[in-house]
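Researcher: Please translate sequence to structure tokens.
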Amino acid sequence: MTESSTPLQPRMRQAMRAEVARVATGLFAARGFENVTVPEIAAAAGVSRATFFRYFGSKEDAVLAALDGYGARIAEALAARPAGEDAWTALRRALDVITDARNEDPEGGLALARLIESTPSLRTHEMEKHRRWQGTLSGVLAERLGRGEDDFETVLRSAAALTALELATLRWARTDGADDLGALIDQAFLVMRAPAPDLI
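Model: Translation complete:
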């Protein structure tokens, strides 16, 4: 179903949810996550406290709403990679979904990454989200390789890819974007793929 054919009410709800999340993230970035209350977010967004909780279960959910859908989009990108492509290359290129989004809005991406890094509860919620992404990616990768969904190698590769993304994003945020995110992810994948005799 295209956006234009999506019923008006769900589209309005999605737009309002995105706006509340944007307002919340801006307040958190300016004042610190722990220093902003739900009533303050609601007031700044022009909604009631009850409305906020209809959209989000917690302040953490409001921040991480920006990541909603990326797991499915990465999995779709992985499934669309050429059939003969090796698993590591397919996984790396699937993560272009993230780097493309960050290149479109680097300041917004950096602000979100800094906020997550500086807030333990957000780091925990992000890791939980990545674990859900991992399950989806493992299933797609297993299908590409003709293996079972619980195949240990596919689980390891999917987990490693997402860890590479997480650590590269952390470095990207700590350098205020001076290091290119895509290049950092490339470096992480090179390390994972290359033999390391000095570590044996």
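Researcher: Any highlights?
Model: The first helix runs from residue 8 to 31.
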